[in-house]
């Protein structure tokens, strides 16, 4: 096959093999491919990339280069030149407004009234990250703390369902959004601000702007803890968060299986690369307790604990698969989780260990880190 048959659509097809690990979607689906030109053996590809993801540019260039060349080789086509260029996205969303001046503390900390910020992350979706974030927020509030929950999972916000906010509308005071006050906590979610069907395609500076707006233009008031439910994987939102907020530490949620551990390791490394202290690992869906009380190790109980040990990280506890936990999440009634004594006790133990790790990190001065700056 000659280069003539390795045409624009063949190049586009080859780009479908380049997948963003954060969303598990390819660069074509994500709308990052802005231009493909093929002319007499010369190929030019223009990709859209946020300046905030500039550190990923060379890695992406290599991956794209390899994918296109491999596809050309399979098609027996010869590539004379392959040019891969990057452009910054055109900003059209209202989410890029500057942070309201009134929200900036004198130190440059946009949330001076929040004592401790804890991020909850996971290597991939579906491991129970939002469940842990919601129950951590509600659990800390039950212990008497003033707690906020920021659902920053712009790719799949869960707070509207898990907190039962479906029928509650957003309220604003001037430029500031008023958080929802329910189950003893204050909450804000991207799910209330955007059409959830559109959230999936939010990339680059839109994700950056959305996070910034949610975090700093919500009237949190005085908080002991702000829990941030991050999107799964390693992406723009974690980077923006680490650049913008003095995060006390991150909790990584993992299920016991080997495949989940590999993803969780990547999430741990991402936080470490961003200079965010990893407070420890939570093993969710650790085992299943049947109604007769018998325990079943469905996914290989203890896997996440071993992973934590091998990475030298604290293990924060195991939460079993509990039908009531899923039911209470679906019905938006997290406080019901404490009606079951065993489950309430494991959630309380988790909250206490996380609090203890935050204190330890503070005592060791590990949360006093310099602000990381990555130039575009
Ligand atoms: P993630 O935020 O990682 O995508 P979620 O917290 O949304 O995951 O959880 C995915 C699904 O699994 C939800 O339906 C949730 O109710 C359920 N779930 C999470 N953890 C448990 C658990 N320990 N027991 C039972 N169901 C759970």
How would you briefly describe this protein structure?
This protein is α/β, with parallel strands linked by helices and 376 residues long. The chain has 11 helices and 16 strands. Strands 6, 7, 10, 11, 12, 13, 14, 15 and 16 form a 9-stranded mixed beta sheet that branches.
Report the sheet with the most strands, covering strand number, pairing sense and barrel closure. 9 strands, mixed
Q: Structural class, please?
A: alpha/beta
Low-pLDDT segments: 91-106, 368-376
The CATH class label of the largest domain is Alpha Beta
Rg, Å, rounded: 22 Å
Verbal overview:
By secondary structure, this protein is of the alpha/beta class. The protein has 2 domains: 8-87, 2-Layer Sandwich (GMP Synthetase, Chain A, domain 3); 110-363, P-loop containing nucleotide triphosphate hydrolases (Rossmann fold). It contains 11 helices and 16 strands. The protein has helices spanning 8-15, 57-74, 129-142, 159-162, 196-199, 204-216, 236-244, 258-273, 303-310, 323-330, 341-363; strands at 19-20, 25-26, 33-39, 42-48, 81-87, 114-122, 147-151, 171-173, 176-178, 180-182, 185-189, 223-229, 249-254, 278-289, 295-296, 315-321. Strands 6, 7, 10, 11, 12, 13, 14, 15 and 16 form a 9-stranded mixed beta sheet that branches. It has a 3-stranded mixed beta sheet with strand order 3-4-5, with helices on one face. Strand 10 and strand 11 form a beta hairpin. Helix 3 packs across helix 11 (341-363) and helix 6 (204-216) packs across helix 7 (236-244). The protein starts with 7 loop residues before the first helix and ends in a 13-residue tail after the last helix. Mean pLDDT is 84; it is low at 91-106 and 368-376. Adenosine-5'-diphosphate (ADP) binds at residues 122, 125-131, 158, 232, 284-285, 319, 321-322, 325-326, 329.
């Amino acid at each position: 096959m000659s280069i003539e048959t390795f045409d624009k659509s063949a190049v586009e097809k080859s780009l479908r093999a380049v997948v963003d690990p954060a969303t598990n979607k390819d660069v074509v689906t994500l709308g990052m491919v802005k231009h493909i030109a093929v002319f007499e053996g010369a190929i030019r590809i223009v990709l859209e990339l946020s300046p905030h993801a500039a550190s990923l540019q060379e890695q992406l260039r290599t991956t794209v280069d390899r994918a296109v060349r491999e596809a050309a080789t399979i098609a027996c086509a010869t590539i004379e030149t392959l040019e891969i260029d990057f452009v910054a996205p055109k900003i059209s969303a209202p989410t890029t407004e500057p942070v309201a001046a009134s929200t900036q503390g004198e130190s440059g900390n946009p949330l001076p009234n929040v004592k401790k910020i804890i991020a909850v992350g996971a290597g991939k979706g579906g491991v129970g990250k939002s469940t842990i974030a919601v129950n951590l927020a509600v659990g800390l509030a039950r212990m008497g703390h003033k707690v906020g929950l920021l659902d920053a999972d712009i790719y799949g916000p869960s707070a509207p369902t898990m907190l039962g906010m479906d029928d509650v509308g957003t309220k604003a005071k001037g430029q500031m959004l008023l958080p929802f006050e329910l189950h003893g906590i204050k909450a804000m979610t991207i799910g209330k601000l955007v059409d959830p069907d559109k959230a999936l395609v939010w990339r680059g500076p839109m994700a950056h702007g959305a996070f910034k707006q949610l975090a700093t233009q919500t009237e949190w008031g005085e908080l002991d803890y702000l829990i941030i439910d991050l999107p799964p994987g390693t992406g723009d939102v974690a980077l923006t968060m680490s650049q913008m907020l003095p995060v006390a530490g991150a909790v990584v949620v993992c299920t016991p299986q080997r495949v989940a551990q590999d993803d969780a390791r990547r999430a741990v490394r991402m936080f470490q690369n961003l200079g965010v202290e990893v407070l420890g690992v939570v093993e969710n869906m650790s085992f299943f307790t049947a109604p007769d009380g018998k325990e079943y190790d469905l996914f290989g109980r203890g896997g996440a604990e071993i992973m934590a040990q091998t990475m030298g990280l604290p293990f924060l506890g195991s939460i079993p698969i509990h039908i009531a936990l899923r039911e209470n999440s679906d019905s938006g009634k997290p406080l019901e989780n404490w009606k079951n004594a065993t489950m309430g006790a494991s959630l309380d133990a988790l909250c206490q260990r996380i609090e203890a790790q935050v204190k330890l990190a503070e005592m060791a001065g590990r949360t006093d880190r310099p602000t990381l700056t990555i130039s575009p």
